[in-house]
Each structure stands twice: as structure tokens, then as C-alpha cells.
């Protein structure tokens, strides 16, 4: 039978097995992996696929049949009372559905209830308690035999050394993950760096490496935490067979468990849980790399049983890998709306964060220099959540790698490129002469949150700009003069041109805040535009104040030519800076914008073309919470953050995302983290959920007409 296996397959399987065993050692023993988890998983799946096709190749010691890595001599080896297995994993929704289908069939249920938990990205630990006292702690090792690291485990501060109960089981194994919170990880790395030691790549490796220290005094200096997730063998006590209830039991006994554990029903429940955790991932201080779904009831689990390395009743639904390595082929400089030159990496396409990425930002020249990135290098690309993919660091220096240089002239218009002292950003000095800046300014002007011109998207603008139909935003309103030639264009016709011209006409009726936002003033986003509109009520008032500010700035400069602190102090009370959220930098760019004659010309032309808006009644728009800034953090029971934010904004408040001295209130729900700490440090008032509701009620009541 083994004669049927093609030699190439056998060789590949052997090679994969060898490589994976080597990676296991680097990962579990050294805590210094040499490839990313995603790449490891790819190799693992390749081996699994070959073994599925040729089962004779799946030897009992194949990495697909075993867990982790065997213990080393440095620690004493200890057998677990029940094996510590791994988890089957899946990377997409179909595989999750397949798991649910098999679990239902295997257990004979129409629908299963799952205990849903975050999958901690740390390292597993098994604890033995005898008569309620922790007597031994072991690593997972190869799943059967682990390493005795009791002395190290005792140093973990949130790990109870005695169960908080009067009736402990005679014997119990408690399992969980040793983790290092992100914030603690950064502190640790800083400390290591200062002491001239090697730093860790990520919190997981730091946790694993710290736990396996031969000197427990070193472990004691590492801010590790233990998060309980399960129970192994139990003697001398009847405990609930519901995994969800077992977790509550762990919590009662004094263990930290994830605040996000839940009980969900069926595939739909698992999906919703996964989506919710994926959305929350970035803000969690303890890193997670997926969700775990475990069949909650004991009898169903017994029906399902185990395969070699994992239970059939549990699955880890992994988040898409956020980092991958690939080749940096070249660098292009893109010119933005404000002339800023952004270096963009052109990459060998790579699947990361759930999408194929071939462009990633390199941020600016300072970052490139700091990370010493060169064309031809193998680089780590990161795409976390919805953020733009970035080149994080060099993974390996390429042969013949060449340094990246900032062009002296704008790649689009040829104007000089300038780098302002103390700023990381380089800019094209061409202004509206530069087609790239014009194009980006026009895209911004027509975009949804600005004038919202339907039918005039990025693609159309690019075409119109390159054909010379559009130079400045005001030209949009004379497109009607080119009706004839527009109709002739490919992909256009009478009807689409009529639609486009109609939506351009309709966009003339707008609001002051949209108009201010559409101008594309540097540093002025949507929220700021709204605040400016509300504060000044009219464009004339804003313009007048910008001019006054500019003049005042010049005077103050003359008064204190060498004293920036004095200048800053003198400007604090100036008109523009009285608007919430407007600091010296923003005020300066607003002033610069309105002083520039080319901008004034564009504004006048737009108004001339018929763009108009109702005046904002400054007094009427002053609402109970106008001028107050809120930051929301943590979760609340009775309303989501979006709802809270909507209700606050409806009362005139500003809701922002970062806490500063200018923040009036931080609303801290359950599990609020670093933002709450920062508020405490800065002395910003903190409201809990009840406090927020009271505040909302008070103002809602206040605005209702009294009988
Ligand atoms: N980069 C490398 O070289 C390399 C090498 C080996 C392994 N790996 C990574 O490790 C994975 C395999 O490791 P594994 O076998 O430890 O599996 P795993 O880490 O994917 O899943 C099993 C482990 O999850 C942990 N876990 C976290 N939260 C849990 C929860 N709520 N309930 C139960 N368990 C929970 C437990 O420690 C358990 O042992 C691979 O898929 C790969 O991503 C990478
Ligand atoms: Zn240019």
C-alpha cells in the first residue's frame, strides 16, 4: 500500500514534518519563532492535506498528531492527570459551519449550545490543587508530559495559591493561559532595552519566555497574568458539566477569567460572537488571536470525543493574520491633498488581515530611516482591523538592497519638495499648480461628507482633471458648459450626463459645516468643521476671525521674537483658539488657509457659482452640552457606545476618542482600560453608566417644555 505513495509526496511530507518540528522547538521552547504563525499554519495545513490523501504517511509522531514540543531536561518532567490538548482551528466561516455541522451530527443534536470564549494569545499552564492548595504548575509540553515550573507560577500575582472555597475538591487540575497585557509588554520591553537586554517580539513570546525562566526571581519581575479557561481532572467533588458554568466556578474560586465569556446558540450565535470580538480586538489590552467555541453540555461532548491532538467538541476560529512577510519591490511617492508626499511600498502581493495587499504605507522618510527599510528587503506587512496596511519592519535584508531616497522634485508636477524643520512630512510646494494636489482636493470636495456630489467619484475626477476639464472646485459648477463633449465620452450618454449635472446642481444647496469641511483646510476634519460652523455661524465671521488671528500672530511674533512659550501664552485666548478642540496648530492652518489669495479666489468663485447654505443661528445652536467634550470607553449595559455618542451629540456635546486635559468627562463603562487611567491621572471627571444616564435625563428633561 505504501508503494502507491509518489516519492515526491513522501519527501515533501517528511520535509514538512522536519520543518514543523523545528519550528515547534523554536516557538515552544525558545519562545523565539523564526516564521509567522500564519506561515506556520500554512505548512501545517499542507502536511495535513498530504496525510489526508495518503494516511499511511501520518506517523504517530507527525506534528499533525502531536501537541507542542516535548519537555527539556532543565525542568523536571511531570505527567498531566489528563492530557492537555490543542484545539482544532479554522480560518473562515465555511470551516466554522462545517465544524458545527459535524458536531451536531456527532452528538445527535439539532442545535448545540456553545461556550464562547476569547482565545488568549499566550502560553498554557496546568495547575494542580490538592485540598484547595496549589501544589504544582506545569507547562503543556507535548500534551502528556509537561515541565514543572511551580516556583515560577507562584510569582504570578493574580493566580490564587488557594481556592476561595470552604469545600475544595480533593484534587483538581485547573487550566488557563499565561498572558502579558499589551501595556505591560511595552513597559517590559522598554525596561529590557534600557538594561541592554534582548527585547521580545510580541506579548505571547514574552509570556512564554518569562514562564520558562530557570531563575524564578526573573519571572517575578515580569508582569504576567493567568486567565483561567478550563478544568482537567477532578476527584472528590461533583461539579457542573456545563463549561460555561465551570468558568463561573473558576471565577468564584478566585481566578481571573475573561469578561467576555458567553453562552451562544448554534452557528448563528457563534458567528455573531466572532464578529463582536473581532470588532473589539484592537482595544483589548490582553491580546487574543481568535475565539474558541466549545460544546457546552457534558453528554454531547462525551458523544463527540477526541482526535489525536484535539477534542472534536471545540474549535478555535482564528482571526486573520495581521502580519505577513513579503518582498518590497519598489517605492512610489504619492502626493496628497495638502501636498504631503507619502512613500508607498509596492509589494509582492500577500494575503494579510483578510485581504490581498500589494501597496502599503511607509509613513514618511523619518520612519524609513528609523527602520532602515530598503528596496529589495523582505519586510513585515501589517494590516490590523480597518487601518491602512503598513510596512512594520525589515524581516531580512535583501541582497543588493538599495536605500530609499526622497525625490527632490514632486513626481507629479516637478515643483520643489520641501521639508519643514521639525516636521516628518515632506511637501510639494506646487499648491494648486500641482495636478496631484488639485485632484485630491477635488475628490475631497465632492466626497460624501463634503458637498456629496453623486456621480462625481474618484475615477471621474481623475479623468476630468487629466483632460483639463477641472482645475479648481469652482470648475465643477461650469461642467454644464461642456455638456456636448461629456455626452461623447466613453461610458457616458445623455442620461448619465443629465444625472451628473443634476446632482452638481443639487449640491449647491449645502450647509456651512459641509462647506468648511469641503475646503480641505489642513487639520480641519468633519467634527472640527461642525464646531467652527456652530461657533462662528457664518463664513464671513470665520474668515474675519482667521484674518484677525493672522495679524495678531504677526504682532505677537514681533513682540516676542525669541520666546515661543510667551507667544503661545499670548495666543491662547485668541478668537480661533476659543473654539473647542482648536489649538495653536489648527488655528494657524485655518489662518494660513484664509490668508492665501488663491484659496480666497476659489471660495469667491464657489459662492459666485451659487453654492449657498442657511446661516447658522449661533445662539439657537447652543445646546445644554455645547462646548463640552466627552470620551467614551468600556461597555455599558443599557446602550451601545454609538447610541451614547448620538445622544450626547444631540445635546451639543463633542465626542472624541482620546483623553486630554481638554476633555470634560470620560464615560467609563464596564472594563474600561487605559483611557480611564489617563482620565484619573489628568483629573478629568469620570462618569459611570448611571452617571451618564442621569446627565442625559437631566438635559432631556430640561429641554422639554414645562407645563
Ligand atoms: N510561528 C511558529 O513557528 C509556530 C510554531 C508552532 C506553533 N505556532 C502557532 O501555534 C499554533 C498551534 O499551537 P497550539 O497547539 O498551542 O494551538 P493554539 O495555540 O492554536 O490553540 C490551543 C491553545 O490555545 C490556548 N487557549 C487560549 N485561550 C483558550 C481558551 N479560551 N480555551 C482553550 N484554550 C485556549 C491554550 O493554551 C491551548 O493550548 C499554530 O497554529 C501556530 O499559529 C507557531
Ligand atoms: Zn506637485
From TrEMBL:
Cofactors (names): Mg(2+); Mn(2+)
Domain of life: Bacteria
A single cellular component GO annotation: cytosol
Any one Gene Ontology molecular-function term assigned to this protein's record: metal ion binding
GO biological process: DNA repair; DNA replication
EC number of this enzyme: 6.5.1.2
Active site: 119 (n6-amp-lysine intermediate)
Sorted UniProt keywords: DNA damage, DNA repair, DNA replication, Ligase, Magnesium, Manganese, Metal-binding, NAD, Zinc
Catalytic reaction annotation: NAD(+) + (deoxyribonucleotide)n-3'-hydroxyl + 5'-phospho-(deoxyribonucleotide)m = (deoxyribonucleotide)n+m + AMP + beta-nicotinamide D-nucleotide
Name of one Pfam family that matches: DNA_ligase_ZBD
Binding residues for Zn(2+): 410, 413, 434
Ranges of residues in domain BRCT: 620-696
InterPro entries with a match to the protein in the record: BRCT_dom, BRCT_dom_sf, DisA/LigA_HHH, DNA_ligase, DNA_ligase_CS, DNAligase_adenylation, DNAligase_N, Hlx-hairpin-Hlx_DNA-bd_motif
Protein residues bound to NAD(+): 37-41, 86-87, 117, 140, 177, 294, 318
Family: Belongs to the NAD-dependent DNA ligase family. LigA subfamily.
Biological role stated in the UniProt entry: DNA ligase that catalyzes the formation of phosphodiester linkages between 5'-phosphoryl and 3'-hydroxyl groups in double-stranded DNA using NAD as a coenzyme and as the energy source for the reaction. It is essential for DNA replication and repair of damaged DNA.
HAMAP family: DNA_ligase_A
Name of the molecule in the record: DNA ligase
Amino acid at each position: 500500500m505504501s508503494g502507491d505513495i509518489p516519492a515526491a509526496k513522501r519527501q515533501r511530507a517528511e520535509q514538512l514534518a522536519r520543518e514543523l518540528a523545528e519550528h515547534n522547538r523554536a516557538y515552544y521552547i525558545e519562545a523565539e519563532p523564526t516564521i509567522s504563525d500564519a506561515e506556520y499554519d500554512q505548512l501545517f495545513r499542507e502536511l495535513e492535506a498530504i496525510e489526508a490523501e495518503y494516511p499511511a504517511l501520518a506517523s504517530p509522531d507527525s506534528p499533525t498528531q502531536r501537541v507542542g514540543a516535548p519537555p527539556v531536561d532543565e525542568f523536571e518532567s511531570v505527567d498531566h492527570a489528563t492530557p492537555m490538548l490543542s484545539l482544532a482551528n479554522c480560518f473562515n466561516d465555511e470551516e466554522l459551519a462545517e465544524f458545527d455541522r459535524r458536531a451536531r451530527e456527532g452528538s445527535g443534536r439539532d442545535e448545540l449550545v456553545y461556550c464562547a470564549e476569547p482565545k488568549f494569545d499566550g502560553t498554557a499552564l496546568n495547575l494542580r490543587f490538592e485540598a484547595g492548595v496549589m501544589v504544582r504548575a506545569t507547562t503543556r509540553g507535548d500534551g502528556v508530559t509537561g515541565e514543572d515550573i511551580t516556583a515560577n507560577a507562584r510569582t504570578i500575582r493574580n493566580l490564587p495559591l488557594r481556592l476561595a472555597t470552604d469545600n475544595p475538591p480533593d484534587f483538581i487540575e485547573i487550566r488557563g493561559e499565561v498572558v502579558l497585557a499589551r501595556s505591560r509588554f511595552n513597559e517590559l520591553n522598554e525596561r529590557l532595552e534600557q538594561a541592554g537586554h534582548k527585547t521580545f517580539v510580541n506579548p505571547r513570546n514574552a509570556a512564554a519566555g518569562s514562564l520558562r525562566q530557570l531563575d524564578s526571581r526573573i519571572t517575578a519581575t515580569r508582569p504576567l497574568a493567568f486567565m483561567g479557561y478550563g478544568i482537567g481532572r477532578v476527584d472528590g467533588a461533583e461539579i457542573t458539566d456545563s463549561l460555561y458554568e465551570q468558568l463561573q466556578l473558576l471565577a468564584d474560586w478566585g481566578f481571573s477569567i475573561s469578561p467576555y465569556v458567553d453562552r451562544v446558540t448554534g452557528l448563528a450565535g457563534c458567528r455573531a460572537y466572532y464578529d463582536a470580538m473581532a470588532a473589539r480586538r484592537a482595544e483589548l489590552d490582553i491580546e487574543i488571536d481568535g475565539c474558541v467555541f466549545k460544546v457546552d453540555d457534558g453528554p454531547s461532548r462525551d458523544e463527540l470525543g477526541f482526535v489525536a491532538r484535539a477534542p472534536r467538541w471545540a474549535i478555535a476560529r482564528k482571526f486573520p493574520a495581521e502580519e505577513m512577510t513579503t518582498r518590497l519591490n519598489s517605492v512610489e511617492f504619492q502626493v496628497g491633498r495638502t501636498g504631503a508626499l507619502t512613500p508607498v511600498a509596492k509589494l509582492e502581493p500577500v494575503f494579510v488581515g483578510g485581504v490581498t495587499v500589494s501597496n502599503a504605507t511607509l509613513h514618511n522618510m523619518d520612519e524609513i530611516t528609523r527602520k532602515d527599510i530598503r528596496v529589495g528587503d523582505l519586510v513585515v506587512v501589517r494590516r490590523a482591523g480597518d487601518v491602512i496596511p503598513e510596512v512594520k519592519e525589515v524581516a531580512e535584508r535583501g541582497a543588493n538592497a538599495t536605500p530609499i531616497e526622497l525625490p527632490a522634485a514632486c513626481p507629479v508636477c516637478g515643483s520643489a519638495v520641501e521639508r519643514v524643520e521639525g516636521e516628518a512630512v515632506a511637501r510639494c510646494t506646487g499648491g494648486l499648480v500641482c495636478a496631484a494636489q488639485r485632484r485630491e482636493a477635488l475628490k475631497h470636495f465632492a466626497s460624501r461628507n463634503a458637498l456629496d456630489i453623486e456621480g462625481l467619484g474618484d475615477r471621474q475626477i481623475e479623468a476630468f482633471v487629466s483632460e483639463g476639464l477641472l482645475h479648481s472646485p469652482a470648475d465643477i459648477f461650469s461642467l454644464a458648459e461642456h455638456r456636448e463633449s461629456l455626452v461623447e465620452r466613453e461610458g457616458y450618454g445623455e442620461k448619465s450626463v443629465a444625472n451628473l449635472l443634476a446632482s452638481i446642481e443639487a449640491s449647491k444647496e449645502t450647509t456651512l459645516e459641509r462647506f468648511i469641511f469641503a475646503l480641505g483646510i489642513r487639520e480641519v476634519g468633519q467634527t472640527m468643521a461642525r464646531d467652527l460652523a456652530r461657533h462662528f455661524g457664518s463664513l464671513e465671521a470665520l474668515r474675519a476671525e482667521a484674518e484677525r488671528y493672522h495679524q495678531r500672530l504677526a504682532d505677537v511674533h514681533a513682540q516676542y521674537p525669541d520666546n515661543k512659550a510667551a507667544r503661545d501664552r499670548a495666543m491662547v485666548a485668541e478668537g480661533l483658539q476659543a473654539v473647542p478642540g482648536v489649538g495653536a496648530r489648527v488655528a494657524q492652518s485655518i489662518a494660513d488657509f484664509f490668508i492665501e489669495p488663491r484659496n480666497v479666489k476659489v471660495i469667491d468663485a464657489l459662492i459666485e457659482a451659487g453654492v449657498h447654505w442657511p446661516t447658522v443661528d449661533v445662539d439657537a445652536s447652543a445646546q445644554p452640552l455645547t462646548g463640552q467634550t466627552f470620551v467614551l470607553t468600556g461597555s455599558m449595559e443599557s446602550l451601545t457606545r454609538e447610541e451614547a455618542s448620538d445622544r450626547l451629540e444631540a445635546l451639543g456635546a463633542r465626542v472624541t476618542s482620546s483623553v486630554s486635559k481638554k476633555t470634560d468627562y470620560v464615560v467609563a463603562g464596564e472594563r474600561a482600560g487605559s483611557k480611564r487611567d489617563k482620565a484619573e491621572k489628568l483629573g478629568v471627571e469620570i462618569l459611570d453608566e448611571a452617571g451618564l444616564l442621569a446627565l442625559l435625563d437631566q438635559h432631556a428633561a430640561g429641554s422639554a417644555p414645562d407645563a
